[in-house]
Amino acid sequence: MEELGYFYRDTWAEVDLDCIADNVISVRKHLPKQVNIIAVVKANAYGHGDAQVAKVALEAGANYLAVAFMDEAIALRNKGINAPILVLGATRPEDAPVAAKFALTLTVFQKEWLEEALNHIKMDERISLHIKVDTGMGRIGVRTPSELSAIEQIIGKDERFHLEGIYTHFATADELDVTYFQQQLSLFEKMISGLAERPRLVHSSNSAAAIRFPGAYFNAVRIGIAMYGLTPSIEMEKEIPFPLKEAFSLRSRLVHVKKLEKGEKVSYGATYESNAEEWIGTIPIGYADGWIRKLNGQEVLVDGKRSPIVGRICMDQCMIRLPYYVPVGTTVTLIGAQKDQFLSVNEIAAKLETINYEVPCIIANRIPRLYKRGGQIVDLKNALLNN
Ligand SMILES: Cc1ncc(COP(=O)(O)O)c(C=O)c1O
Question: The organism sits in which domain of life (predicted)?
Fold first, then answer.
């Protein structure tokens, strides 16, 4: 255990890197050869582990990485990841030299940003840029051909800037109604047709569009959720032409097991009362781990049987009604497979009335991530640091 990064509480997440690799390979096969895959590993790779996922995705056929913030990109560099990294979100203009230092690609969408950044970038520094076009997401990006051309001109005039790419982001690519998607796509095509010169990379598709719409490939796609084995939306589940393999599991172990008599209570507020004689187990995971109180009543797997969480979820612990007596130390699966049962991320998302994207992201850093390859837990942390 020591060499796997020892931890003192029996709750952990397992990230199956073979699933990540297989998902990237499936996406790769689905796309024409010339289309680059930008693996989206922001937010600690949607809670799965940034460098571990990045490394496997690159080995499996991704050519580029994307994160939301420069801090995330620097963290990857510090873990030995040398592949090109695009920062999708906004960066302060005075921090542009940091991008040069770490060889990061920044997203730009304001001419004032470029003017200000030039006050900070030394003459011998070079910064790679992608222009973001807002075609209807309403988040960041240029909205008019004149804004776009002003930006293109400023970049073209200064050799400290290199325009490597241009992109947009779809708001509804995962919905069955394609009207708004088509509008965004046409607007993007119109915007890029007004460029004096096309940069090397043109991209618009997230996982949903990369799976569904060949007309939106251009020459790169940004793949996030599908790489983790999750469907972009329940609506488009049936449209996915290859299997997606869920990489994330969450497990704990019973730290206490007791028999309650009929009418005894459990947890804060004493809201749960046993109906009869019941076996109740305690697991060391709670709302401070992202296993929030709304998950009261959610089932978990014990000895391959669905067993409900009873009583209010506490900060660090919660209680479950066991199917029968099982000993302290028994593994409890909160997400993932156990025996012939499977508890999907989608099931947890439905209980939380949210999307599957949110589930692994909100599982706190307090829960260690263990990595699996070939069905075995492996120690990748040291391997990555020694890279
Ligand atoms: C700009 C941008 N591109 C791509 C992605 C990846 O999207 P998905 O996870 O749906 O593939 C995201 C994710 O939110 C994003 O914000």
Answer: Bacteria
Ligand 1 mutation pick, 222, 248, 359, max ligand atoms within 8 A of CB:
222
**Could you confirm whether 42 is annotated as catalytic?**
yes
28-34 long-range contacts, Cβ below 8 Å, gap at least 24? 28/60, 28/61, 29/242, 30/210, 30/211, 30/241, 30/242, 31/210, 31/217, 31/221, 32/214, 32/217, 34/219
Question: From atom 6 of ligand 1, which residue's Cα is the shortest distance away?
Answer: 224
Task: Confirm or deny that 315 is annotated as ligand binding.
Answer: yes
Homologous superfamily (CATH) for 31-229: Alanine racemase (3.20.20.10)
Catalytic residue among 29, 268, 324, 325: 268
pLDDT at 379: 73
pLDDT mean for each 10 residues of the chain (387 residues):
71 98 98 98 98 98 98 98 98 98 98 98 98 98 98 98 98 98 98 98 98 96 98 95 98 98 98 98 98 98 98 98 98 98 98 98 97 89 49
Indicate which atom in ligand 1 lies nearest the CA of residue 46.
9
Which residues belong to CATH 3.20.20.10 in the chain?
31-229
Report the distance separating Cα 283 and Cα 154, nearest Å.
58
Phi, then psi, of 221 in degrees rounded to 5? -130, 150
Cα of 153 from ligand 1 centre, angstroms: 28
By three-state DSSP, how is residue 379 classified?
coil
Atom of ligand 1 nearest to the CA of 210: 11
d(CA 357, ligand 1 centre) in Å: 10
> Separation of 223 CA from ligand 1 center, angstroms?
7
Q: What is the DSSP letter of 142?
A: B
The answer to whether 371 is a known catalytic residue is no
Q: Is 332 helix (H, G, I), strand (E, B) or coil?
A: strand
Give span(s): CATH 2.40.37.10, the chain: 248-381
pLDDT for res 381: 59
- Token readout for 228 is 């983790």
Architecture of domain 248-381: Beta Barrel (2.40)
Measured distance CA(258)–CA(322) in Å, rounded: 10
Structure tokens at 360: 């692994």
